[in-house]
Amino acid sequence: MPIVINLDKVLTEQNMKSADLAALIGITTANLSILKTGKAKAVRFSTLEAICKVLECQPGDILEYVNE
């Protein structure tokens, strides 16, 4: 898939655990795991906004396009 999810990298840089982020943005850890592993077919802008707000980052820090 040409869209790469760098959420683990950003979480590590922020010294935050996935469970903590999930609780802060109001989604389940299972749904966050699906997003982190790139298995999600879509992501809501409200979820992306919440992640960026909590992690103080930009969407481009989390999502990356890689031409195969």
Give the helices and strands, then pairings:
Layout: E1 3-5, H1 7-14, H2 18-25, H3 29-36, H4 45-55, H5 59-62, E2 63-65
Antiparallel strand pairs: 1-2
Helix pairs in contact: 2-3
Describe the structure.
The structure is a single chain. This protein has helices spanning 7-14, 18-25, 29-36, 45-55, 59-62, and strands at 3-5, 63-65. The chain is globular and about 35 Å long. The chain has a single domain (3-65), classed as lambda repressor-like DNA-binding domains (434 Repressor (Amino-terminal Domain), Orthogonal Bundle). By secondary structure, the protein is mostly helical. 57% of the residues lie in helices and 9% in strands. The model has no long low-confidence stretch (mean pLDDT 94). Helix 2 packs across helix 3 (29-36).
Concise synopsis of the structure shown:
The protein is mainly alpha-helical. It has a single domain, classed as Orthogonal Bundle (434 Repressor (Amino-terminal Domain)).
Low-confidence stretches: none
Total beta strand runs: 2
Reported by name, the CATH topology is 434 Repressor (Amino-terminal Domain)
SS element count, helices: 5
Question: Pairing-aware structural class of the strands and helices?
Answer: mainly alpha
Based on CA atoms alone, the radius of gyration comes out at 11 Å
Q: Count up the domains.
A: 1
For the sheet with most strands, the description reads: 2 strands, antiparallel
- Percent of residues in β-strands: 5-15%
The run of helices and strands is: EHHHHHE
Give the CATH H-level superfamily: lambda repressor-like DNA-binding domains
What is the CA–CA distance across the termini? 8 Å
Just name the CATH architecture: Orthogonal Bundle
- Helix % is 55-70%
